[in-house]
Specification:
Length: 318
């Protein structure tokens, strides 16, 4: 009998909380906050999730985030994601949140952080979830704006363990944020960054050497650089790979082309994650199931991928 992938104990290290905003919840929050959405129905919104690129997705992602205004909205968003984690036996999470997406709209940092952390704390108390929260900077904005965001977040320093870098990759190399990442490291914050999804292998090198990241988010384009592959293997630098996301955003045309299992067998520390599951068609279990269906992932490979998630965690997982 094949391994039950839903029952498999899993850790998720690459999940944007704003990207778990399901259409049904988006409409409920829009109604609660008196916001008019540019879609007539949940079905019409889902039909818009046909992305030709990362930017196509981000346009809808940022538009949807506008319904998040009150502390209760951020709580409901996070709680809905964590309930799915519980149903899929995801027992450790290190979610990203994008404060600039909200503070630039006039939402207070305290509103964002309090709503998110209340849900995380409840999940820890109710079913023993372990977690670490990561604050991400938006790379299409300036480093000065990232510095101000870090300043604004300092009163909440005890609530997050690291900093990350996300949003539009092309044209925004990691080196653009070298100073703010250095400052964050000096504060004891653990650095991670998106690199090598749409951006070239050079962006992965920059994330490692200029930002000092301890984990690379995505990183799949490392396959284009043999020297980089050797470094990732020898240093066992984790890659938080998001299979369904990579296909939906046209990094690969079909899951059968995805290199995750090759990376695993080549000795790299690759992990499975859902990225923005409300938009990309699946949470953790669905990502594992896609690998079994289209890449003939074995039960042994599934177990190793799942264990890599725990091994690559930034905080203790038990």
């Amino acid at each position: 009998m094949s391994l039950d992938l839903n029952a498999l104990n899993k850790a998720e290290l690459h999940i944007h909380l704003e990207g778990s905003l399901e259409p049904e919840l988006m409409f409920r929050l829009a109604e609660r906050n008196g916001i008019e959405l540019p879609y007539d129905s949940v079905d019409a919104l889902r039909k818009a999730y046909d992305f030709g690129s990362l930017q196509d997705f981000l346009d809808i992602y940022y538009s949807g985030a506008k319904v998040l205004l009150q502390e209760e909205d951020f709580y409901d968003l996070t709680r809905a994601y964590l309930d799915r984690c519980r149903a899929q036996n995801v027992t450790h999470v290190e979610p990203f949140f994008d404060p600039q997406t909200h503070t630039d709209r006039g939402v207070a940092m305290t509103t964002v952080v309090n709503g998110i952390t209340r849900a995380l704390s409840e999940a820890k108390a109710e079913w023993g979830l372990s977690y670490g929260l990561i604050l991400c900077f938006l790379r299409h904005l300036s480093e000065d704006e990232a510095q101000r965001t870090l300043d604004e977040a300092l009163p909440f320093r005890d609530h997050f363990i690291g900093v990350g870098l996300d949003s539009s990759e092309m044209g925004h190399p990691p080196t653009k944020f070298k100073r703010v990442f250095g400052r964050a490291r000096d504060m004891g914050l653990l650095p991670v960054a998106h690199a090598g999804e749409e951006g070239p292998p050079e962006y992965i090198w920059q994330a490692l050497d200029e930002l000092g990241v301890v984990r690379v988010d995505h990183g799949v384009r490392a396959t284009e650089d043999a020297t980089l592959m050797a470094r990732l293997r020898s240093e066992q630098i984790p890659l938080t790979v998001c299979p369904l996301s990579n296909v939906r955003l046209k990094v690969y045309d079909h899951m059968s082309q995805h290199p995750i299992l090759k990376l695993l067998e080549d000795g790299l520390k690759v992990t499975v994650n859902s990225d923005d599951p409300a938009y990309f068609g699946g949470y953790m279990t669905e990502n594992f199931e896609a690998l079994r269906k289209d890449l003939a992932m074995t039960d042994d490979q599934a177990r190793r991928l799942a264990q890599n998630g725990f091994d690559a965690a930034l905080v203790p997982t038990s």
